[in-house]
């Protein structure tokens, strides 16, 4: 591999190329001379890709699901009731069985009256049947509308009505939401219910609703008795209209073609070392999110086994796991894992909490091992042999939290803090590839390579796309900047989607076609290219706010740094342009804050009352200042005042997207009075 001139050990990961479109600085992957579009010959659509993989890997395990053995309610010390689940081992179906089920479902859809030009929506939590239903729709060239299970009522009505959905595939929980809004749905005629192993209560559809209802099994059985020949799609056909959960306003439907997603699969398959049918992948993120959908399409194409779980049953100590029952990761022992930073932050905090609780020699040994390995990344601590020693002696039990077999992780959806990235590297002994992409670019645009041990970067372009930086003069970012070129990130290539459904004005605003016919998407994100061709996200146009005296504050950048405070679970920085300082809303970490209070001898009735104490706010601000200084934040970027909250922000409350990004406008409205008081 070539090196950057003058920098002996710096590998070239992205190379400069001349392409069409707006003037700027463009990079592509160093691995290929031209962009890749398909993983192999003939795999030009998701339907063809899946069918060929099923034929090649017919007898191998494809999809695994854990059976619910028992569900019981437990009351916590503070009087709250939680459902606890006892789960069994994974039960598997083969690739052949998966294809057979998808084919039967496709025929069943036709048999219950779903027309060829009609849209079908999937509105359910991630599970094997979700993916099988998707593939069934593709076998009849049907376009699938994907809807987050956490989407609010208004957004749900908007998504289903705008796309004129006639058939909805959903689970029992989401069916109840549909019943509540039934009078507002204009085109829904049929509902297909996925079996619910956790909720055994009888679901009654009011007589006033005239939808035809059938179970997923009934539709498959009907299709098996009434087979219909497959009507396979073309690369330019629309596979999915994916509704983004959006941080502002109503969600937009992104049109994704089969060719778009296949290009992403082809690019990602080039980057994961030794990806094969021997891999096991734990699926628990929302399949209605482009990151998870792209990941499962890629793993399925490679013949890997996909075991399904959920964020609430992920580890042995997850909220819904009955004590003594294994979490999904411990049961599956995955080799590959995809996560969003919020999940990885929780894993990190969970390990730290476990170590703090054990205390004594265990904590002393852990801290020593961690410090030695951390210094090893800078060349001043543990070498290879010493790292292996600590890995066996100290970190083996930590690795067991995620099953003990993880050989690599991918993080996407939001910036991953350097602290969390290093924690995963050290404690789990696995490379973690940061990825960057958007729904509009069909997920991945860049992906850090596994031998790249740097933090804070998102890697070079994936082999299926170009990354271009263009000047943003208003914000002071230019490709001529020193020491690194900076500018707005523009993405081009076969994974760039056609645009937004029934929204030509917005499509024309952010999509451009150059003189060669290539599509480019203008992201609104600000990046810089490192000398080796890797991209770093440094800002976002919408997140940059100016203070009273002209200083610019990048909300996302500051939040990504301050989340490293052990007292912080979630944080939203707020800037009033008429003021000279920042403030913040913080969801406090209950375990960390209560431990601090006990050590300081501070009496408190409960966690909410502890969050109201002035002493607590002062301690957390002190921690933010320490973390901010370490991250080289300016003084004006660190909040002068904070409002501490005891209840977590969730997608269900409308405060986070499904990818666990902040919904700033919703938070600003909900806590408007608190933000006003912080400035008073």
Automatic annotation (TrEMBL):
InterPro entries named among the record's database cross-references: AMP-bd_C_sf, AMP-binding_CS, AMP-dep_synth/lig_dom, ANL_N_sf
Domain of life: Eukaryota
Organism for this UniProt entry: Adiantum capillus-veneris (Maidenhair fern)
Keyword line: ATP-binding, Ligase, Nucleotide-binding
Any one GO molecular-function label of the UniProt entry: long-chain fatty acid-CoA ligase activity
UniProt keyword annotation of Signal present: no
Keyword Phosphoprotein: no
PROSITE patterns reported for this sequence: AMP_BINDING (PS00455)
Residue ranges of domain AMP-dependent synthetase/ligase in the record: 83-501
Coiled coil: none
Family statement: Belongs to the ATP-dependent AMP-binding enzyme family.
Catalysis: reaction(s): a long-chain fatty acid + ATP + CoA = a long-chain fatty acyl-CoA + AMP + diphosphate
Protein name: AMP-dependent synthetase/ligase domain-containing protein
Gene Ontology CC terms: endoplasmic reticulum; membrane
